[in-house]
Amino acid sequence: MTPLRLVIADNESIIRMDLREMLEDAGHEIVGEATDGKRAVELTKKYKPDLVLMDIKMPEMDGITAAGKISEEGIAPVLLLTAFSQQDIVEKAKGSGVLGYLVKPVREENLFPAMEIALSRWQEMKELEGELDKARDSLELRKTLDRAKGILMDAYSISESEAYRRIQRYSMMKRMTIKEVAEAVVRSGVKKK
């Protein structure tokens, strides 16, 4: 596994110390440690680590709430650590956007595979978000382009293909993107006949 930058959040100093030692021995860097969820969120925003390891039961803000805030902002993947494996806690954890869940005591043979899976899922989510953004942009362009062609077709009594050719030609001539030309046509709302 490539060395990672991590934030550790647990209100028990012995657990934080054990995790730190285990992770540093494996070549990872601990960029922040927190004893409560609120501080964990602050450190995560500040350092933008590759991964956050966080206990569920902490003062000020519990780990599930903190994980939800971190996930909501898309800052880093969160792997929850807990001494509890009750179903209601698991359900709350699933709803918070965490990418893994380990029951204490945490051992290397459980931690490192869970970290790899969490990072892999995080990467997949980021790629899907990128694809979704591209699809939204493409759809938005398609809508704008269709509106622009419609405006030109009405204004100049031309076919759809001719309207598109004019947009294309103007785009090349003015060194603008087709999207920029289409948006300009829509904004101008050409009303000639």
Q: Strand portion, in percent?
A: 5-15%
Q: Write out the strand line-up for the largest beta sheet, numbering strands in chain order.
A: 2-1-3-4-5
- Give the helix proportion (percent range): 55-70%
**What is the helix/strand order?**
EHEHEHEHEHHH
How far from one another are the termini? Answer: 66 Å
The total number of structural domains is 2
Q: Which class do the helix and strand fractions yield?
A: alpha/beta
Radius of gyration: 25 Å
Low-confidence stretches: none
Strand segment tally = 5
CATH superfamily of the largest domain: Response regulator
Question: Mind explaining what this structure looks like?
Answer:
- This is Response regulator receiver and ANTAR domain protein.
- This protein is of the alpha/beta class and 193 residues long.
- The chain is 61% helix and 13% strand.
- Strands 2-1-3-4-5 form a five-stranded parallel beta sheet, sandwiched between helices.
- Helix 2 (37-47) packs parallel to helix 3 (63-72) and helix 5 packs across helix 6.
- The longest helix has 49 residues, at 108-156.
List key phrases describing it.
alpha/beta, Rossmann fold, Arc Repressor Mutant, subunit A, 2 domains, 7 helices, WH-like_DNA-bd_sf, RNA binding, phosphoprotein, Response regulator receiver and ANTAR domain protein, CheY-like_superfamily
